[in-house]
Here is the input.
Amino acid sequence: MVTTGAPFGLVREDLDRLELALVETARAEHPILGPLLSTVLPGSGKRLRPALALLVGRLGTFRPEPMLHMATGVELLHAASLVHDDVVDESELRRGARTLFTRVGNAVAVLVGDYLFAQSAAQCVATNDIRVIGLFAETLASMCQGQIEEASRGNTPHLSVTREAYLHTIWGKTASLFVLACEGSAILAGLDEPRVRAMRRYGDRMGLAFQIVDDVLDFVGDESKLGKQVGSDLRQGTITLPVICLRETMPTGEFRAAFEDDDPDGLVRLVRESSAIDRSYAEAERLLQEARDALALVPAGEPRDVLENLTRYVVDRRV
Here is the structure.
């Protein structure tokens, strides 16, 4: 199994600088805000998105300061989205710890997320690249749209959510941020337009596959590593690719009856024991192959090799 530790060695020093930047952001002088930020910023997460930004930056002319602003902006945007997602989804746990909103309430949690969005915008502006700033604005809009789509599925989501609608939603919620990390850094590194488009495609496919694997792990992962109950998305009414794959292989009447039984544990077992998991992994693998194909357009070397290795990490990871 590929882990992120070894591949990130190429950008380890830059990621250390990123951590310092996050620590500095968390040192807000406000007596309430500072301690709250310290619970959601430094030392948490895998830093995959900023690492992608830093790796793509090495495919061209690597400019340390703009690239650090880019990577920090991406990670702050990710952190802000998680805070808001937990409020919208009413999630009590994230990575095994109580979410911010369960400790301070919805209103304060939303405002902390807003503060992180503002800090992320400041970092993107600090790149001094108008195209990157525009891409940041597009990404933020896409992320909001994706969350709105998921939150407004209607009363019979198990029958109404198509595969295409699911992919559109996760593009907004997840893949758009991968695109920002990869396309934005390609622009800052001075890559030509065909290579910028290639890195956009790489980020797009990586982000979609990452979320699909996340949704599979929600059914088959180890609860102690997930930090939440198996099948939590389904229990909250969120329909993901494994459920869609199950529906595609069952008669409509049987599928409807399974949901109407109001037996979440039984539904989770049904998904796990069907071909839905393998079919979902196959879709993730297809997308990751397209990501690897996109890398053919960028210069050969260690950064490209690491980016290719990370496609294996996405599908092999356990949490």
